[in-house]
Structure formats: C-alpha cells, structure tokens
Amino acid sequence: MKTTAKNRKGINSIGVNSKRKSRGKISNNSPRDLYQVVTDLILEKLESGIIPWKKPWGDLGLPSNYLTKKPYRGINLWILLAQEHNVPFYLTFKQTQELGGKVKKGSKSIPICYWNFVYRNKETGEKIPMDLLQYYPKDFVTKSSYVKEYKVFCISDIEGIDWEGIDSGNNGIPAIEQCEAIFEEMLYPPKIRIEGNEAFYHVKEDCITLPDIGRFERAESYYSVLFHELVHSTGSERRLGRSGIIEPTQFGTEEYSKEELIAEMGAGYLGGMTGILDEDLISNHAAYIQNWISILQKDKNILIEAASKAQKAVDYILMESPF
C-alpha cells in the first residue's frame, strides 16, 4: 500500500559583452574532492550544449526538496536544474524511507552540497555545541565552515508514495511586470542611464548604462541584460563588496571571468524566476559554452564559489538576507 506524504515532516566598468558512498549518506569526500565532483557534473552538461544557469525552470517552479518544500540554493540549484527533470522535486534516500517509499532499481542519485559551520574553543580546540555558544566570549571562539555531500533522487525515481501538495510555481503575474518590479523594489538600486548601444555597469558612478529598450528585438532581451548588470552592481562597496567589482580588473583576466560567471548565474536565476528566459536569449551560445568550459577546467573551486556569490547577489536584489 502506498503511503501519503502530505503531513510528514522530517572593473571599473563591466558589461554584458565584455568517490561516492551508499545512497543518501554523507560521503567521505573532502571539500576539494566534492568541488571536483560538482565541477565535473556541470562540465558534462556544458560539453553537451546545456548551460544550466541559462536553463529556465517550468511551471512547477524551482528544484525543491519534496519533504521540506524548500527550493535548493546556490550550486545545488544549477546541479538539479541541469538534470532536466519534468518534476523538480527531490528526496534523500533516508527521507524516502521515512515516507514509506523506495528508490526504483537502477535509479541514479545526484550529489548536492551541504554547508554548515563549526564553532570551537580557541584555546582547547574543543567543539562547542550551538546551544552553549552564547555562554562563550567571542574572543574565545573560532568559526569555520565545512561542506559535505548528500545524495538526492528525483521523485520520478521513487515509488510507493502518493505525491501530494505539488503546486505550480506560476504566480500569474505577467513576466515583464515581474521584471520591472525586481528593479523597482531593489534596496539602494544603482542609477540607470539609457543611451548608446552598449550595456555596462560603471562602479565609480554606481550607474548601469543600457541601450533604449526599442533597440532590442524583444523586451525580454532588454531585461535579461538589465539583470546581468544588476548582479554586477551588487558587488559595489556600498552593497556586497565583491573583489571582482571593487578592485580594477582587465578584460580577459581570471578575476574578470569570475565576475562575469557570477553575473551570468545571477541573471539566469532572475530570468528563470520571472519567466523570460529561453533559448533565444543565449547569445553566442557556442562561445559562451567554450568560455565556461575553459574557465572551469582551470580551477575546480570557481563554480561553487561563483554560485554562492551569485546567490548572495540575487538575495540582495530580492531583499532577502545574503548571509
């Protein structure tokens, strides 16, 4: 008999042109190894012609954990979006068992990353439980982050559960209206200057320059470029203070490429969220892919770091806490 899951808990200017264990368990991969696993997953998609951060999600919304209903964030969003599942809901092996289901034979798990912090006594090195942290003076505590790997399965690869509560992510608001609202509701937005035929963010002036919307083939193209530049603007000192923006960088350098990747991923999120993203908005498709492949092959840390910074940028634009 199937069980029901319903109530179970468990730079001065920068522009747009310019090894695994058993299912559901934490692996023993070091953070460095996990970075390589994730990078290889994305590289595989890029080499097949898929740019995950240029891939819109469907009417069911963002890839989310079925049990908690929380959307995945950072690099996990792009890992799962790149899988191209029709139903974007996932469970760990343990969650599947808790709901009385089982993973179909031959199904493949997908690795995702989990970040957390550990606090230790600066003198003894002893780990401090979170509920006791308040009793320690700040000068006696060290804080460090760590990353671990979890495995999830798409619910289409799970049987024995009656899936309930899968609602459409479509809020019914027209795409262009949503695009306008994102800029209008942004906290301390940059100035916008409409002139010329180039798009770029000027750091010292804290100003985005864009061509008139009439110069674009479609309004969606205009807003896609605006989102790219908005993500750049979050790197200014008065906002998130990213090195790729506040420190001078030259076109073609590694730091410039990192900042462009952050802007592309952030713009992809905003484009997917508003429903404007489609294949027509990917200019120089082949060139983009080759560029990202060459960048990621050089440094396996870039992808996860860029995804994290892109998430913080999006959180800032949407007035959510980036920390």
- What is the N-to-C succession of helices and strands? EEHEHEHEEEEEHEEEHHHHH
* Structural class by helix and strand composition: alpha/beta
Report the uncertain regions. Answer: 1-28
Largest sheet: 4 strands, mixed
The amount of beta strand, in percent, is 15-25%
Q: What is the number of beta strands?
A: 12
- Please give the domain count: 2
Number of helices: 9
Write out the strand line-up for the largest beta sheet, numbering strands in chain order. 2-11-12-10
List its traits.
323 residues; alpha/beta; 2 domains; four-stranded mixed β-sheet; 9 helices; disordered N terminus
Can you give a write-up of this model?
The chain is α/β, with parallel strands linked by helices and 323 residues long. It folds into 2 domains: 152 residues, no CATH class; 143 residues, no CATH class. Helix content is 34%, strand content 17%. It is built from 9 helices and 12 strands. The strands form 4 sheets. It has a 4-stranded mixed beta sheet with strand order 2-11-12-10, covered by helices on one side. Helix 1 runs antiparallel to helix 8 and helix 4 packs parallel to helix 5. The longest helix has 21 residues.
